[in-house]
Amino acid sequence: MNKILKNSWALFLGMGFIMMAYGFQGSLLGVRAVQEEFSLTSTGFMMSGYFVGYFIGAATIPNIISRVGHIRVFAAFASLASLVILIHSIIINPFVWFLLRVMTGISMVCIYTVAESWLNDRSSNKNRGSILSIYMVVLYGTMGIGMFLLNFSSPKNFQPFILVSVITSAALIPILLTKKKPPNFKKITGLSLKDLYDASPLGAVSSFFYGTIQSALFTLIAVYATSMNFTILEISIVTFLLAVSGSIAQFPIGKLSDIYDRRKVLVISSFGAALFAVISIIVSRQMYLPDGLATSKTLFYFFFILFSFCSLPMFSLILAHTNDNISKEKFVAAGAGLQFIFGLGAMSGPFLCSLFMDFVGPNGFFVFLFFFHSVIGFFGIYRMSVRKTIENPDSQFVAMPQTITPAGIELNPSTEHIEEPYSDKVKEILERKGVKYKKTESQTR
């Protein structure tokens, strides 16, 4: 563990600053949009720009890294993210903010890819799991801390935007000063959508709808809380609980999915999240009224934590279930394919959720979450009725952040490199020379 931290402290520190700024920025823009009286539809449209940019960046970043290298890409896109947030405070317009969010999404996926491919290069089969665990703690922990920075100053002021820029810029320092050589970037190809669907219909469909859920959940939770008249501190608490409780739940739910049928755990998690979304509506009651008249938020916090416990581990469950249905050497390609599908769903999430909120009111946020979690749950029940459980000894649950890129998926300990089998011609040459070769795992399949 000490060796991991010694070799990768600069990356972890840099990503800590990045995620702190990211957590702060998401809440800041949501609250400011409500204060500027953007319509809910405009706010959802604006927030969806991040995922449009994320999708664009994921398709273009491999070529950029191959041309200019990891350090330059990280520096360039961290600088771009730092610059873009400042423009938000100068031009207050939903369409302009949408374009800025697109640029932020491009910047963030580039940063994630650089960091995760770098970490993967420094990992071995023995320490991949430890590196991924530390990476998740850094991501969720610092993002939660960043959400409390919303109390630094009123979102109406320009100072919070400057602070986001400062924190983002600070991420450059440890990365640019590291003496470690950057890795050689390896392009990762995904399975075709048809092959991925054929291998795991539940994995492909769930990934799409879960992308819709997750993008709306993280971008509009602050909008929901502001619409319900939460104070800035209370908004910070809600967003912090979302990030931290969901990350803690990854490990117990993952353990259950390794013991029992993974599809049952996924279905129960989906319906559990749907149930707690409904209960969150019920206990919200009169929370939006002014002080002295508002009902207590304690029960809301409690059931929102339970909602996060059920919902946030679902991407890792979907990935593990998909791996149950394919051979080990396709794990990374399948993960890349699921991320592509996740991104397609994520682009529409905030906009669709804002339509629910516009039609129903603030609690349309939870109606939206209830609906799409239920869709995943019912589709899971249908798939269980038409396909028997498949036991794949190579597949296991590994907790993954929703922001993981294909490069980060390689940190999964179960994706350790499989040697290519020798061709018959090579074996013949080796035998003539008296060289004994060892059968690899892929040769014994």
Structure, explained:
This protein is mainly alpha-helical. It has a single domain, classed as Up-down Bundle (Growth Hormone, Chain: A). 73% of the residues lie in helices and 0% in strands. It starts with a helix and ends in a 13-residue tail after the last helix.
Topology:
Elements lengths: L1 H34 L4 H29 L1 H19 L5 H29 L5 H21 L10 H12 L1 H6 L15 H7 L1 H27 L4 H28 L2 H23 L13 H14 L2 H11 L6 H30 L3 H23 L19 H4 L14 H9 L13
What would you say about this model in short?
The protein has helices at residues 2-35, 40-68, 70-88, 94-122, 128-148, 159-170, 172-177, 193-199, 201-227, 232-259, 262-284, 298-311, 314-324, 331-360, 364-386, 406-409, 424-432. The chain is an all-alpha fold and 445 residues long.
Stated plainly, the CATH topology is called: Growth Hormone, Chain: A
Q: Secondary-structure element sequence?
A: HHHHHHHHHHHHHHHHH
Characterize the biggest β-sheet.
none
Class from secondary-structure proportions: mainly alpha
Coarse shape: globular
Q: Approximately what portion of the residues adopt beta-strand conformation? A: under 5%
Number of strands: 0
How many helices does DSSP assign? 17
CATH class: Mainly Alpha
Helix content: over 70%
Low-confidence stretches: 418-423, 437-445
CATH superfamily: MFS general substrate transporter like domains
- Counting structural domains, the number is 1
Distance between the termini: 34 Å
Gross CATH architecture: Up-down Bundle
Cα-based radius of gyration, to the nearest Å:
22 Å
Query: Averaging pLDDT over every residue, what do you get?
Result: 83
